[in-house]
Amino acid sequence: MSDEQQPVFSIEKIYVKDLSLEIPNAPRIFLEREAPEVNIQLHTKGERIDEGMYEVVLTTTVTAKVKDKTMFLVEVQQAGVFQIRHVPETDLDPVLGIAGPTILFPYLRETVSDVVTRAGFHAVILNPVNFEALYHQGKQQADQNAKVPERTEDTQKITH
Fold first, then answer.
1. Residue 99 and residue 84 in contact, taking contact as beta carbons nearer than 8 Å
2. Which pLDDT value is given to residue 41?
């Protein structure tokens, strides 16, 4: 039997940390018939909150515009507390930057769709995201900028 302990990765809690909805041009914006341009940005952050406990926050900002008018702006911070133990320090950053956001994304997607629908608009369904690719792009960009990030900071901009 090995003295080395097995890695532990478990979900302790998943929650909406912050949620905001703005409809700055209501009620007139509901009269618009033109399809809006939808811009989606994603951002991830992970940090240690206690011994073996980490918080991962996946933030999205969804902005829909028709011409120069904002139809709506939704920002959601979907978060999770994860127990991570016996994972080498070199593997911790990818766990926080890839595994955590991958688990949180379906919850974020549902929250965005629900909020936009309840606001009176057609649902916005976020397309699947490859967090591993985003993580590696962020690391590569950080290496090119010759600075090492404290935690994973990935952003994705999608225009529909």
1. no
2. 97
